[in-house]
Amino acid sequence: MEQPDIPPPDSPTPPAAAAPPPPQPPGRARDVVPRALVVLVGLAAAFLVISGMRSASGLIGSAFLALVLTIAVHPLRVRLERWMPSWVSATLCVLLVTGLVLGLAFALVVATARFAGLLPRYRDEFHDLLRSGEAALHRLGVSGDQFDRLLDGLDLGKVAGLVTDALSGALSGAYGVVTSVIFMLTLVLFMVLDGRSFPGHLAVVRRSRPDLADALTGFASGTRQYLLVSTVFGFVVAALDTVALELMGIPAPLVWGLLAFLTNYIPNIGFVIGLVPPAVLGLLEGGPWLMVAVVVVYSVLNFVIQSVIQPKIVGDTVGLSATLTFLSVLFWSWVVGPLGAILAVPLSLLARSVLVDADPASRWLVPLISGSPAPEPARPPDAEAT
Predict the structure, then answer these.
(1) Mean pLDDT throughout 17-44?
(2) Which tens digits make up the pLDDT trace of 179-226?
(3) Which of 12, 93, 232, 245 fits a 20 to 30 Å CA distance from 157?
(4) Which residues lie below 8 Å from residue 221, measured CB to CB, with a gap of 6+?
(5) What 8-state DSSP symbol labels residue 26?
């Protein structure tokens, strides 16, 4: 009977095989840099970028406004090219954009000048209101010495003078405004001409970066939808405000209706700017009760439409929650200036497209940005069967 081979006692035993490393959890990589350091570096980089944007706010605002206007007229240029040469359609689109920009600027100047021209007519009514307020304070036992000194220093002509000075200051800086408008319109011309070949360039990008191409396409589509929704609601608000102000006897109701249309492009808080002139004129024309009526009408019409219904529709259309839309107005106004309040939603859409939509790893932020619930993941077929 054969005996098994037994190794001699002095022979070394073979080393045991090394145990395999424990498997990493799926979807997680080994942390090389502490998360806190990553967050701090990201915040520092964001601070530098925002500081640079603030220092170049004039250039960024004009360039982005040109981009938004080019996106708005792009479908029209595509349709016109079916019937005429491309250079003719591009020229017509640039002329349309020029007319819109100059018309909106002229409307703002007319509204400010009209308000400044109406105020001096109510000098006597203004002093009567102040005296009525002084009498009411006296009846409440408040001393009128300081109030009398305040009355001596108050003059409606001075208020109108402040408005006129502000208008004059804007006109004195017309050179800078005209330069910015010429730069913006020239940029629109080049963007409209380049827009003819942009779909082909985007198709090339889509081959290697489909997520980025889809994000840019979504940004353009969302911007056009936002402009369409804001324009439609602006017309509705302007018509209702004009009719209401005409019925209440407020002077120049068409001017304030036009102002309400323009301020509708400032989300959530634009109606407050358009409320000031008719409310002041209502106070001077018919007293506190007429001013209260104007405020109530604007609050019911403009607040409900512009701050409740419109943000909901805009949020569902472009994928931004009402809270984020409101915060974007404050943030972009601080970064870009007054033009940032008008371009707040398109700027936020561009930031979302580049930082979130173009990166599949950041898609988990979409429900937080849009305010809509995240879609449920698809269940495997075997799980549904069980």
Answers:
(1) 65
(2) 777 777 788 888 887 777 777 778 888 888 888 888 888 888 888 888
(3) 245
(4) none
(5) T
Cα distance between residue 319 and residue 180, in whole Å = 31
- Residue 170 reports pLDDT greater than 50: no
Rounded to whole angstroms, what are the CA distances from 303 to 116, 134, 307, 363, 371? 26, 33, 5, 33, 21
Assigned token pair, 309: 């219904």
Share of the chain above pLDDT 90, in %: 0
Evaluated on CA atoms 378, 381, 385, 386, the torsion sign reads: negative
User: What six digits make up the tokens of 160?
Assistant: 């109108």
CA 272 to chain centroid, in Å, comes to 16
Backbone angles phi, psi at 359, to 5 degrees: -120, 110
How would you label 12-25 residue by residue, b for 16+ Cβ within 10 Å and e otherwise? eeeeeeeeeeeeee
Q: How confident is the model over 95-117, as a mean pLDDT?
A: 80
Q: Distance of alpha carbon 252 from its chain centroid, rounded?
A: 29
- Which whole number is the average pLDDT over 35-45? 83
Alpha-carbon span 203 to 213, nearest angstrom: 8
| Residue range 278-295: mean pLDDT, rounded | 84
**Degrees, nearest 5: CA angle 43-45-49:** 115
Distances (CA, A) of 142 to 133, 134, 137, 139, 218: 11, 9, 5, 7, 62
From the CB of residue 92, how many other CB atoms can be counted at a distance below 10 Å?
16
pLDDT at 172: 45
The position carrying tokens 């800078």 is 176
Integer Cα distance of 340 and 332 in angstroms:
5
Number of neighbouring beta carbons within 10 Å of residue 60: 20
Cα–Cα distance between 225 and 307 in angstroms, integer? 18
Per-residue buried b or exposed e for 124-159, using 16+ beta carbons within 10 Å of the residue's own CB? eebeebeeeebeeeeeeeeeeeeeeeeeeeeebeee
Q: Answer yes or no: are the C-beta atoms of 308 and 233 closer than 8 Å.
A: no
Q: Are 340 and 334 in contact (CB under 8 A)?
A: yes
Average pLDDT over residues 52-68: 86
